[in-house]
Amino acid sequence: MKKFIFILTFFLMFTGVTIAQEIGMALIKEGRFVPLYGASSKKPVFVNSFYLDIYPVTNAEFLSFIKKNPTYSKSKIKGIFADKTYLSYWKNDFDFGSSKPNSPVTAVSWFAAKKYCECQGKRLPTMDEWEYAAMADAKTVDARTKKEFNNYILSWYEKSKTYENEVGKTFKNYWGVYDMHGLVWEWTTDFNSIFLSGESRKDKSSDKNLFCGSASVNASDLMDYAAFMRYAFRGSLKAQYSTRNLGFRCASSTKPKVNL
Amino acid sequence: MKKKNDISIKMNMLLCLLFTILLGSCKKEESVNYTDIMTEGEMNAELTAPPMVPKPVGNRTAMKLKLNMEIKEQEGTMTDGVKYTYWTFGGSVPGSFIRTRVGDEVEFHLKNHPDNKLPHNIDLHAVTGPGGGATSSLVAPGHEKVFSFKVINPGLYIYHCATAPVGMHIANGMYGLILVEPEGGLPPVDKEYYVMQGDFYTQGEYGAKGLQPFDMNKAVKETPDYVVFNGKVGSLTNGNELTAKVGETVRLFVGNGGPNLVSSFHVIGEIFDHVHVEGGTVINKNVQTTLIPAGGAAIVDFKVETPGTFILVDHSIFRAFNKGALGMLKVEGKENKNIYSGTIQEGIYLPEGGTIQKMPENATAKTATPKRTAEERIKIGKQIFGTTCFACHQSEGQGIPNTFPPLAKSDYLNADSKRAIKTILHGLTGEVSVNGKKYNNVMPAQNLSDDEIANVLTYIYNSWGNNKTEVTPEMVKALR
Fold first, then answer.
1. A Pfam family in this protein (chain A) (predicted)?
2. CB within 8 Å: A231 and B165
3. Could you tell me where the DSSP H helices lie in chain A?
4. pLDDT tens across B234-272, in order?
5. Distance from CA of A255 to the nearest CA of B (A)
6. pLDDT tens digit string along B300-324?
7. Does B426 carry a binding-site annotation?
8. B85 bridge partner residues
9. Which helix (H) or strand (E) holds B332?
10. Which of B73, B140, B162 sits opposite A200 (nearest CB)?
11. Residues of A in contact with B74 (CB under 8 A)
């Protein structure tokens, strides 16, 4: 009996490790940074340690989610949760057509992305978390002032149809996370918390009611146009929107449950 | 007492004068309130890609115009062998031309193609309202925004994208023109065209091959590699020339998208009969060069009295001959010797002095030259000819009588290809005899690579009745 328990414990430990790898999350250690937007002053924001998916969610993964939650399929999803472009490239409810299983799932609404993460016992990352993890290049935590890093991000805007690529083909960053840049845009929980009026020139003025982060725009590196674009993109979204270049990945504040 | 009287008389006169000025100016600016014009009927707005413009409004009443414009981010050609990712309104740079009349109500449907990566919006300078429409039109990829406005000020206006970072969106080609015609329309003319200048910033220098990414640093420093009409080098040359017949009146709707440079717009060999200064209501007459600010426009018209090729330039002239800001208007018809005798050198601009000058040499890249067939050389050479040679030697190699010798059926050229190579490499000054005529002028040494010289000479030798010599980079290198 003792022996059996020992074996069982051993087995559980072993599977625990395996699952941890399968779960595929990386630990992002706590730290402070000054985001381009969002900080009401120049003061850096503090980001607690959290776990972030190593890769964006893929077509295959999303398909298995839909099989378990058919209300989130193309034909069944409620209109308030997703607009008509939801999974527009999928052939039908349970077939992602000619897309690769390992390509990121895109054309999903915020509601669907959020639900997916919840079903995994996870959540969407906050914008600050996402930006914090995304400012790392392969070697440093904050590469935002590096010219090559910004050029790399900017050059992505000029490559078309990168959503057809498979996950994990861009660089692995300092935290061990892939595809933060160069593959698809990604949803965040509070994507619309920064109010960009759409008249971006106005947003740059010191009109603090419109846009409380204006001070930080002036303070942060204005050459960080790469980030500018992300905020502008998020500003154009609504939660039921889905676009072909927009995917997501999940985060977790605690170690993923399966691993405990 | 007398003094006091004097003062009061003076005061009175001053008041009178002031009153007259005020009254006068009031009278001048007495304008119709176009906000009250009622619209009758509805139609879909006609949109055109440059250099064409939609039909004039003529006598039609103010209407409700439905306008569909799609934003596309797409790869295009900047110049031969150079690709660029353009962001476009309607698939062209500049974007589709919009033609309205004062009082029209425009229902604007702005669509962002699903494959696009970025949100966009539109600021139309013809719109009275916050952001010129930009505040109401931020649209995510795969979505559509609808807003409407009434055009209440006649004139020629630009529109552009105003999404962060604004400069980058404009630098990638997101601009175009919207015309608001006065009641009854602009006076009819024979030909109308749409030309818009823009400056582009690429990571490689002018002519560097391949897909060239946008260079933010150059844009901030305002040092463009390309300054072009209608989005690319050669959009109005090499078979895409604007055309007219002798005796016709040509109207050009000219805009400047910027993002940075101000244009000194000039047509070599023509004088604008009328210029709607800055695209507004004031008409200036007999203008040589009109200034078009970034984010501004002008309407110019002129009657073409003589046949020939008239060259559209930004008269900040290095932009024309070295960065691409050059277009052509080909006029066909009978010579009119009273107006142009054939000996006047009107408009030929020779920036160099009386001695041979050198172009800076460092720019010739040391990259390996690919093997090319004669056909490839001719194709590439034609492009080089179009930007480097034709301003003097003319599009068909005919030259300019008594000034620039012809290259077509040229005995001087066909007699010695080594001499031709040396001429491009080192320049040429002094008297030469070509086809029995004497020329005494200066040609500066050209800053071209061995490969480029080989290509352009092969093109010249294989055109216009020359002896079909093929020049190779090795031949050029031996003489450098």
1. FGE-sulfatase
2. no
3. 2-23, 59-68, 110-119, 127-134, 147-156, 200-203, 214-219, 225-235
4. 999 888 999 999 999 999 999 999 999 999 999 999 999
5. 33
6. 999 999 999 999 999 999 999 889 9
7. no
8. B75
9. strand B326-332
10. B162
11. 160
